[in-house]
Amino acid sequence: MDINNLKSLLLDIKEGKVDVDTALEDLKTLPFEDLGYAKVDHHRSIRNGYPEVIYCEGKTDEHIIGIVEKMYEKKSNILGTRAKKETYEKLKKIYPNCEYEELGRIIKIQNKPIENIGKGTIVVVTGGTSDIPVADEAYHTAKFLGNDVERLYDVGVAGIHRLLNNRDILMKARVIIAVAGMEGALPSVVGGLVDVPVIAVPTSVGYGANFNGLSALLTMLNSCASGISVVNIDNGFGAGYLSSMINKL
Questions:
Q1: Which one, 3, 48, 213, 214, has the greatest CB density within 10 A?
Q2: DSSP type of residue 210
Q3: What φ, ψ does residue 198 adopt, rounded to 5°?
Q4: Given strand 54-55, what is the order of strands in its sheet?
């Protein structure tokens, strides 16, 4: 139940359209519903502005389906990250409106219109094509949370003219997500060109001495460009979520 549904329920009680006992049935699972293996946080959209997001990696399909079922009953829009295609195929049989973004491994179930809450455009930039799965996780997260989002892929520092030729896209952004592996230099370059927040996402893309993304993470944390924040390695979801929070301010 989100803030709009709660307001609607209270108005229905006030106007006599819903009796108190029926309202109590709707409210009794707030703030969370205990399934034994999970405590589904139906109250989160009222506190934080967005419903709970399901991190699917490490969960069984049965547990994911059980969580989705309870969120679906509340008519929540449902976002699942790091989801396997096999999980999506099982959900699709139960919920025909379920969609899957294969590169970003995102499951989406839209039960009500997504309100565009963003004040501007979020631009997702990658250093290389190998960074796209993480970038797509960020892109679809920010999009699902109600933002205009654009993608600018494969414009890394190895061919910096590709980035400079797209400065017009960067300049119209309100928030930029810069996704890169290897040495992770892209956010520093982008941060030196724009006057908006840059969210840096290190990826685990690279050869042995990149230490599964640690080299990119350390580069981004030590950037001399101002206005850069850094999320964890391969955390496209975290970047998409944070960009949405900034964009709605």
A1: 213
A2: G
A3: -120, 125
A4: 54-55, 78-81, 106-109, 98-101
Pair 210, 127: CB distance under 8 Å: no
CATH architecture of 121-247: 3-Layer(aba) Sandwich (3.40)
Question: What are the per-10-residue average pLDDT scores of the chain (249 residues)?
Answer: 68 81 67 76 76 92 93 89 96 95 95 87 97 97 95 93 93 97 95 96 94 96 94 97 95
CA distance 169 to 178: 13
Tokens in use for 222?
């030590």
Rounded to two decimals, what is the model's pTM? 0.86
Question: What are phi and psi for residue 179, nearest 5 degrees?
Answer: -115, 125
- Residue linked to tokens 């790091």: 82
Q: Kind and range of the H or E element at 117?
A: none
Query: Which residues are paired to 122 by β-bridges?
Result: 149, 175
Of 83, 103, 107, 241, nearest in space to 177 by CA: 241
Neighbouring residues of 218: CB distance < 8 A, sequence distance ≥ 6 = 184
- In whole angstroms, what is the distance from residue 70 CA to residue 215 CA? 41
Domain residue spans of the chain: 3-109, 121-247
CB 107 within 8 A of CB 121: no
- Coil, helix or strand at residue 193: coil
CA distance 83 to 172: 32
126-180 residue pLDDT tens: 999 999 999 999 999 999 999 999 999 999 998 999 999 999 999 999 999 999 9
- Residue 63 phi/psi, 5-degree rounding, is -70, -40
